[in-house]
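Milestone 3.1: sequence recovery, worked example.
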């Protein structure tokens, strides 16, 4: 594998880095002391929307999307560079991330021309913020058991039911919804996918607050919600196939934050924090622990590049997304555990102190790390997929 970037790729990096350094407002940069994937309040959300618009106007949103829908039409390598530079600048997750990473690619694959024209430019411009309405109280890992019902009434469906864990639904203007359109066939064959404006009468959003105190996701209730047939994405009763496209993109984009940056911060912390009267850094067991995390992070980076090489050869992303998702989220938990061991009781304090000036960051990391092992399919489910579809083991 050639690790060097070509001249035109380095030029792309330089241009994007330069643009970010002159345009990204410092007060929008994330400090890692809060969960940043969904804005903590409406004011922050709106400032981030303005940021997405500024980026879009300069052609930096959806760089790999086709030009005809307002994207830049560049390749996967540029996308990797975009991710690296965006993270290095500590720029905030774009508010339209759900639309950009999951909904847009699904519409590009399954949408009618009218749906593509209607939604794709608006997703890029940050004019449409999307939520993902898949999980239900009785349908998470076993998503095909979903019971939210859509009854065919000629030119429209009437939807009744409940979704749960719906990230950012309190800000979203649209939701991509999985519904049961035929309850009389095997469960995977009676599901359809609908694109629904959140302002439709009969939709109620109730907050669910994470243990970090952050309002990240919600319960969403549907009571006699009327959805025109034109909002059906893909063929009726083929929603399982549509959702597979969405989940494939989700697993490839999931896995937690930049591990390299977190491990570097953990090493800096180990130099400062004392254990048994000397800096933690001087204890061989702690050095080994940190070295192992650095090795795991590097191995993950290389596995990600290998998956990229396959995609560059034109092979579709496959179940290896589960390997990346599993390793990334579990490494995040190991980093959080090491922080807990290093900081002892300090890790329970959400306030800066002389010993640990960045205590809020570690408090948040330790509480938040495990969520990535649940969202986008749990670690157990990823292990099942790897066992059955990558290793060819018999079903348990
Ligand atoms: C931070 C966060 C954000 C989320 N955002 C969204 C969102 O925006 N939209 C959305 O639709 N959903 C969202 N989810 C929901 C997420 O997809 C589900 O939580 C996840 O799929 C697990 O489903 P569940 O919570 O119902 O758990 P369950 O499926 O009930 O699982 C419970 C436990 O049983 C284990 N288990 C279940 N089945 C098996 C099996 N076959 N083999 C082995 N073990 C098994 C699981 O691994 C888990 O440990 C989010 C979740 C989190 C944590």
């Amino acid at each position: 594998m050639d690790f060097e970037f070509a001249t035109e790729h380095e030029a792309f990096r330089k241009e994007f880095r330069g643009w970010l350094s002159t345009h990204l407002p410092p007060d929008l940069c994330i400090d890692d002391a809060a969960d940043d994937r969904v804005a903590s309040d409406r004011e922050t959300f709106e400032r981030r929307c303005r940021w997405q618009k500024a980026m879009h106007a300069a052609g930096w949103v959806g760089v790999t999307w086709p030009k005809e829908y307002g994207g830049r039409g560049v390749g996967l390598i540029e996308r990797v560079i975009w991710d690296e530079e965006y993270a290095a600048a500590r720029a905030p997750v774009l508010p339209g991330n759900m639309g950009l990473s999951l909904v847009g690619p699904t519409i590009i694959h399954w949408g009618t021309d009218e749906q593509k024209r209607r939604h794709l430019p608006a997703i890029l411009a940050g004019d449409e913020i999307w939520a993902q309405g898949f999980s239900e109280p009785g349908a998470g890992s076993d998503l095909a058991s979903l019971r939210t019902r859509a009854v065919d009434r000629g030119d429209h469906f009437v939807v009744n039911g409940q979704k749960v864990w719906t990230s950012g639904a309190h800000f979203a203007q649209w939701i991509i919804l999985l519904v049961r359109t035929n309850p009389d066939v095997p469960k995977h064959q009676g599901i359809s996918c609908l694109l629904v404006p959140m302002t439709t009468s009969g939709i109620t959003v109730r907050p669910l607050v994470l243990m970090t105190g952050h309002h990240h996701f919600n319960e969403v209730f549907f009571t006699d919600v009327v959805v025109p047939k034109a909002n059906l994405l893909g063929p009726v009763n083929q929603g399982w196939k549509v959702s597979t496209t969405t989940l494939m993109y989700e697993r490839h984009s999931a896995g937690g934050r930049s591990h390299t940056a977190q491990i570097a911060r953990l090493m800096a912390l180990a130099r400062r924090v004392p254990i048994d009267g000397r800096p933690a850094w001087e204890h061989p067991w702690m050095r080994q622990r940190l070295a192992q995390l650095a090795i795991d992070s590097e191995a993950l980076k290389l596995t990600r590049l290998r998956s990229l090489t396959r995609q560059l050869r034109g092979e579709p992303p496959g179940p290896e997304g589960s390997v990346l998702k599993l390793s990334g989220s579990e490494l995040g938990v190991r980093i959080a555990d090491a922080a807990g061991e290093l900081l002892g009781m300090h890790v329970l304090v959400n306030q800066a102190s002389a010993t640990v000036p960045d205590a809020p960051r570690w408090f948040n990391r330790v509480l938040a790390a495990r969520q990535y092992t649940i969202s986008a399919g749990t670690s157990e489910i990823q292990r099942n997929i790897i066992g059955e579809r990558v290793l060819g083991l018999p079903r348990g």
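The two ends are 36 Å apart (CA to CA). Residues 132-135, 140-141, 165-167, 216-217, 371, 374-375, 377-378, 380-381, 384 surround flavin-adenine dinucleotide (CB under 6 Å).
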